[in-house]
Design a protein that fits this description.
- The chain has helices at about 10-15, 20-30, 40-50, 60-65, 80-90, 100-105, 120-130, 145, and strands spanning about 5-10, 30-40, 70-75, 115.
- It has about 150 residues and is of the alpha+beta class.
- The chain has one domain (about 5-135): 2-Layer Sandwich (Alpha-Beta Plaits), CATH 3.30.70.141.
- The longest helix has 11 residues, at about 20-30.
- The structure holds uridine-5'-diphosphate and magnesium ion.
Amino acid sequence: MEQTFIMIKPDGVQRGLVGEIIGRFEKKGFSLKGLKLITVERLFAERHYADLSAKPFFNGLVEYIISGPVVAMVWEGKNVVTTGRKIIGATNPADSAPGTIRGDYAIDIGRNVIHGSDSVESARKEIALWFPEGPVSWSSSLHPWIYE
Ligand code: UDP
Ligand code: MG
């Protein structure tokens, strides 16, 4: 089954949005396969966002991600990468639809509350980076009530 990496950024943690955000993924029917609250170091944040290292906002983005603890998660389910991005909403909260996490809880692009992998391949890399111990292996007894 497909997995994605979701991270609640420092602003989401500081603003008390952890429960609300986890609830949205849980209520959708996805399964939580990894969860930790951690503060990451600069080099680690730079590795996570390595693809964006040439962008003008890169340094500010790294400062933002290391500014406080983040909640790192692995979520699993059919199409969870694409659907996770839809639940999160557009990168710039000015364009995120109401009903999405960024649409409901954010205003500025540099304080957009949450990260989600943009492809199955990025998810694989990000899960390996953030969860070198591997996700937790368990199967939900709700499975037949969510999948036909
Ligand atoms: N970002 C920013 N300014 C920009 C574009 C992106 O501060 O002009 C930040 C924003 O927090 C975004 C992150 O960099 O979530 C990663 O950018 P990406 O294009 O990967 O967006 P995402 O995948 O998070 O929607
Ligand atoms: Mg991205």
